[in-house]
């Protein structure tokens, strides 16, 4: 392992912190309804400690000001390792020690408050921001955050990103933690939008708090932070220079071995993936893919080092291409990542991300089944992946080739299971009667997808005949299909249109499995 050390010094200069303190953080069918119900977040599943206490539930004995000795030791050692830039030890503490302590001491409660642990780390402002980032991540994973906690977490991310953007950063942090920051930032934004859209049962206090903090998790604020990290890090220019042999970003896994910091560069890099994800949640697939363009996903890169980032990148890349009718690109990348997971998933069994890995694996098999049903390209699929696919969805894929309501329902089912949790980013109406609109964005994307499927199903007949004949006259084909020649010409032109798409460089490409 490579351990990087430097003399003890504050994580940020006093002048930088002074400037940071002054910065503002603002910167309709039965099947459809059934799928919509399955699509919803299960936000009510984890226990909410404050709510349990308020309703007279079981007393967990949680005291936010009590710091067990093991937690004191954890924060003291974490603080020391961060100041020493000991990336290996920081990673071990985040991935092993933090998870172990969470399971043993804080399975159903939050960690001690930041105010309680601050004296053990010299009240270091930046370390406290990092601790709170982990604190809120644990809260979201184990419990159900209150509205105030959601807002407080956003404020903490604002402060943390402002430090990175406007401070003089001396830290070197593990790539896994930096990815977790971006990943969790986008997840909490997504979760907040879903939470806010469920207005029907909101209390007067919640509505008042939403009105008071209308800029919390605002879509423009979220996008601005991610874009600012990309631009300030100059990561796009760094990746361009790397192609010319002038940079070693990928070769060093993004770390700075000359005594500098990797934080801004790597956060900027991961923010491009974050922007892809946000734009997919908004249904803006072109913009999402445009943000990912600087990363060459046909090659190994920093994004492949962190398994969660690797999967998130390809999942959203593949889904965006599916929605843009670039089926070949979707099939090719789904096949590659599914083959990688098939070969390596046993090595990730102890990872905190293992369950999420398995879930995304199943979702991508569903999306691959959809892609291949709309655009048969089995020659692009590895034998191992194809075997798994046939085992999981072979029967459904056979039925999806038909043009009946059952096939249509299967497309609906697989899309609803495997699609992202789409969001409506606009603020809700606070006028009575209050209504839920958390499924509006999902229904819109589902309807767009099913409209495309319906058009593709109309072409299944002509595809069948074209597979049988290497050449056939229009009159003969029209006779077989029981349509007149002008109608057949329209069908053939539609088929040609539907089997072509525009790639990321603006070129028209064919997705057809037959000429």
From TrEMBL:
Any GO CC annotation of this UniProt entry: eukaryotic translation initiation factor 3 complex
Superkingdom of the source species: Eukaryota
Pfam families xrefs: Paf67
Keyword Protein biosynthesis attributed: yes
Plastid keyword on record: no
Keyword line: Cytoplasm, Initiation factor, Protein biosynthesis
Molecular functions (GO terms): translation initiation factor activity
Residues of the PCI domain: 333-515
Name of the protein: Eukaryotic translation initiation factor 3 subunit L
Annotated organism of origin: Noccaea caerulescens (Alpine penny-cress)
